[in-house]
Amino acid sequence: MASVASPxxxxxxCPLYYLLNAIPTKIQKGFRSIVVYLTAxxxxxxxxxxxxxxxxxxxxxxxxxxxxxxxxEGKCESITFVKLLSCFDDLVAVGTASGRVAxxxxxxxxxxxxxxxxxxxxxxxxxxxxxxxxxxxxxMKLFSGDDKGKIVxxxxxxxxxxxxxxxxxxxxxxxxxxxxxQKVLLVSTLQRTVLFYTEEKSVKQVGTQPRK
Length: 212
What we know:
mainly beta; Methylamine Dehydrogenase, Chain H; 4-stranded antiparallel β-sheet; about 0% helix; about 50% strand
């Protein structure tokens, strides 16, 4: 007997004007007019996070149809990577062109959830552009990689407001992708892909030939 084909669902793809119109195309800085470029993007079921060339993170809440803005104090520099996570609290990690990494713990209206915006900084280890970020599913671990091959592990204690960071791996070429699951960190660089076992602190290469 022939199986019944599942119904086909048509979807329309169109520019997100409601999102783009909430982000300025230019800002005024003194006597200069500076063009705003969109430099990083991540999405989940609750938020759309957009990084910009002026160091501003635009965070659009899909349920409330509201746009919020977050930035780094001090130097205005381009955001190069953003990574969202929804666990008990909503978190967003942000990396910049100079190697700064910050985590924003977002405010939630749900009972028992975080009621005050908090920020955690990964201080002083990265010295070059952030190219990859990866969360653990519970939001207690964040891994960050840069274009010089450094990978930093940050342990977050959201209840105590503490972020401790350390260098865990250094590759000879730029990091292009990170993914973490069950104590194993997948690391892809311009030259190779490896599995880093965080408990044993051992590395296993995927394949034998370097990338061309």
